[in-house]
Structures are given as structure tokens and as C-alpha cells.
Amino acid sequence: MRIATWNINSIRARAERALGVLERWDLDVLLLQETKCKPEQFPVAAFEEAGYEVAAAGLNQWNGVAIISRVGLDNIQTSFPGQPGFAKEDAAGALLSDPVVEARAIGATCGGIDVWSLYVPNGRATADPHYRYKLTFLEKLNAAAAGWLADNKNVFLAGDWNVAPLDHDVWDVSVFEDGLYVSDLERAAFNAFGTTGLREITRDADGADYTFWDYQKLRFPKNEGMRIDFAWAAPAVADRVAAAHIDRNERKGKGASDHVPVVVELNDL
User: By percentage, how much of the chain surpasses pLDDT 90?
Assistant: First the structure.
């Protein structure tokens, strides 16, 4: 069984690329982030013609997550238990709106595994309210994961975590003066999933050192990237991992996303 996660940065702009990734890697499940569309705008027909089912969540042209599967798509959930919402604040910290649960998580049972496609908030800056939202999102997700493990669920949590857990997960840690992506609090929140009982299963992936290269400043040709796309899995799923790959070639060419797919191969039960 092969499962991949990919921040596609607009499914409508890159549907053909997604179909190419499905075929090239012979994927059973593809988890997408930043689809940037409402479910009714998702190009479902193209994937159904290729033999896949689609579940998507999206509120507008921002965020958005999806699961594309050819091994079943059951028990679809468009948020995890306790998922926090985000509300804008003024300069004094007063709320300007009610919190909104954004389209940042979608889960379903595919081939006997409870997969989740996750788009963790960016944080924007360590002094920004969005940073607190990011930490709360990770905390609540970890609490949900603890509940799933207690229920012996075969969970697979993958996506764009917007955290670089190690210094060498960015091309030059000194560039990150604000600390976003590499701050102690973000890294602690990320690593807490391991304390809960999950295992990160892509650390030894081949193919590239990074999973994201910004469009600006020739970051990709210079290989000035970041590794911020990961997968955490329950022990029973982690024990099945045969290999993991970072599809660096997907960053090449006109119209590429700024992220690339991360592919996990699982041995059959």
C-alpha cells in the first residue's frame, strides 16, 4: 500500500500534476493540503475516471484539504475532535469575529487505516495571534491522537506541519531570525506526538533533504529549502513501513507547487 501527502497549492491549477503523481507512484491514497477550493469546485470527475474516490473540505480560496483513495473512503470527518477555530484580533487583542474552524483537517478510513490530511496553521510570526493558534491546533490534534491510540485505531497523520523539527531541516537556520518554523515551542508541540505514542515515519526518506522550496529568490535552484511535510503513525502502521520517498522532481517545471509529495510504502498485513 502506498500513501502520499502533498501540499498541492491549488488543486484546480494542478489537477493534471496530481493525476501524474498518482500514476507515477502507483498510489493507493493521496492526501492533499491547500486545495484552495470548496468541495463543489474540486475536479472530482478527473480522479473518478482514474479509478479513485475523493473526499474534500474547503470553505473558500484559502486552506482546503482532501483525500483521494482507490482503497475505500469511509467514515469521513472534516475536523478532528476539539479542533480549534481562528478569530482575527485587533492590536489590543480583542476579538474581531467569532472563531471559525478552518478547512485544515479531513480524515477517512482507507484500506483499514484511519488517514488524516492535515494543514497545520503557518503561525505567520512568533508574536502573531496566528502563532498561538498554531500551537493550540497542534495541542488539540495531539489530544485527539491520544484518544485514537487509546481506542487502538490505526491512525496515519500526514500533511504540511509548518514545523522544521531539526536545524538541518532548513537550509540555514540563522535566516530564521523570528524563529517561526524552528522555535522551541513549535518543535516541542511537534515532538509531543512521539511522547503520545505515534512514530514519525518519513525521517529516513530518500530523494531529497527538503519538501518545500519558496518560489522567491531562486530557492529551488539553490536548494534552499525546508523540510516541513511529515507523517506520524500508530505503532501498528509504523511497523509496516517499508520505505519513504521525497519526490523532488515534482518541484521542477512550469506550474509546480512549492511543496513536493512525500510517499510512504507500507507492507501488506
Answer: 93
Beta-strand pair 229-233/155-160: antiparallel
Are the C-beta atoms of residues 154 and 107 closer than 8 Å to each other? Answer: no
Pick left, alpha or beta for residue 119 (phi over 0 → left; psi -120 to 50 → alpha; otherwise beta).
Answer: beta
Cβ(88)–Cβ(95) below 8 Å? yes
Contact 228, 7 (CB under 8 A): no
- Statement: 2-266 belongs to CATH 3.40.630.30: no
State the average pLDDT for the chain: 96
Is 131 in contact with 180 (CB distance < 8 Å)? Answer: yes
Phi-psi region of 255 (alpha: psi -120 to 50; beta: other; left: phi over 0): left
Retrieve residue 207's grid coordinates.
530523494
Mean pLDDT, rounded, for 66-72: 98
Check: CB of residue 28 under 8 Å from CB of residue 52. no
Backbone angles phi, psi at 189, to 5 degrees: -65, -35
Residue range 213-240, pLDDT digits in tens: 999 999 999 999 999 999 999 999 999 9
